[in-house]
Amino acid sequence: MKNLTILILASLLIQLTAFSQSCLPEGIDFETQNDIDNFQANYPGCTEIEGNVTIGKFMTPSNITNLNGLNVLISVWGFLDIRLNDNLASLSGLDNLISVGGLFSIYNNQALTNCTGLEALTQVGGLIYIAYNDGLVDLTGLENLNTVGGNFVLRQNEALTSLMGIENLTTIGGGLEIRGNDLLTNILDLDGLTTIGDHLWIAGNDELGSLQGLEGVTTLPGYLDVGYANALEDLTGLGNITAVNGYLDIHDNEMLSSLAGLENIAEVGDNLSIHANSSLTSLIALSSLTSINGQLIVSENPLIVSLAGLDNIEASTITNLWVHDNISLSTCDIESVCNYLAAPAGAIYIVNNASGCANADEVEEACFTSIQDVGLSAGFSISPNPVSDFIKFHYQAKGAGAVIFLIVNITGTEIKEMQFATRKPGNYEFKVDVSEISAGIYFCVLKTNEGMQTRKIVRL
Q1: How is 278-340 classified by DSSP, letter by letter?
Q2: For the chain, percent of residues with pLDDT exceeding 70
């Protein structure tokens, strides 16, 4: 009896192995319906394909109408490329597919309306590329997909109206790209997403009126690019992002009137560019930004009147300054710009803006005339100027009294205060350490009982 039990178990194990095994390390191309239909007969027991799989042809449409012959597949270790199948209306047949190890591409399948048939899929190790499927309306069928190892790209799907089907997607190891899906109205079904491992690129989705759905994302290790999104009026949905480690580019958005949604971004790791947004009136939503580590570019935004909102960027993190062709922009003398002009690290290009910001000379003049002298007529001079460590101020006193020496920035905020005293009329010299002050433009203010005088200094 014991031996019989062992024989039965061994037989079951052999049968199980026969029905669940890997095969085809060289991969396989399914170019015809006949290839699909004969798969199980040609490769009995094959449930996991070790190599790459292509369903369809590379240059011309296939005659494939269904994938039923692949219903034993549970895994593809390499890439899975479903392409150029004009008569394939459903992905049913892949119902048992749990994982794809590499790229998963659904490309140019004109009859496909959704992703039904992929309900078992939980993980894709590489890029997901869903593009040029003109009949695709939504992503129903991907409800159990939670992790994508590479980029997730949705591109040029002309009938796509929603992302229904990917509500449970939490992690994208690469970037998220949503581009050229002209009927897409919302991305609310991304509300489970918490991690984007690289960039976020939103471009050319003409009906996309909101970025709500991305509230779970807090950091972008790559760039943030929003462009040609002609229905967007603001960037609400990005409000929990605090850092963009690549560049930040907001450009060519016809209806964008506000940058609301960017209020919490404190750091950009590369260039900051605000370009050609014809309805944008304000940059104030960028007030939390303190560092960009690249070029500052504000160009061709016809309704912006002030650079207010960029005030808190540390000038030393700006590599080049490009402010041009903003026809209403008249106020550029904000702290970050003035400090950059005082000690530029690279190029300065300020042209073709409104009066007050028409060129660099106008901006410098506005920067340097923030504080006025009051009353004091006694001699007051400072040297050296520009300065890197210590300055000496020379003061001709009329008599005994207190002397207050202040250093303030261009907004009038006090940076340093020192007090001295004079005992009798005469010339006095005092030494002040400014080595701990950041590079930029400052005013030295001398106060006595007679009044006040100021002198501009440049800290290198």
Answers
A1: TT----GGGTT--B-SEEEEEES-TT--B-TT-TTS-GGGEEEEEEE--TT--B---HHHHHH
A2: 93
Contact call for residues 263 and 285 (beta carbons, < 8 A): yes
- From residue 55, how far is each of 31, 67, 75, 99 by CA, in Å? 6, 9, 15, 16
* 135-190 residue pLDDT tens: 999 999 999 999 999 999 999 999 999 999 999 999 999 999 999 999 999 999 99
Compute the mean pLDDT over every residue in the chain, rounded to the nearest whole number: 91
Pairing state of beta strands 195-196 and 401-409?
Answer: unpaired
Domains in the chain: ranges and CATH: 20-198 (3.80.20), 380-459 (2.60.40.2550)
Interacting residues of 361 by C-beta distance below 8 A, sequence separation 6+: none
Neighbours of 160 (CB within 10 A): 26
pLDDT tens-digit readout, 59-68? 999 999 999 9
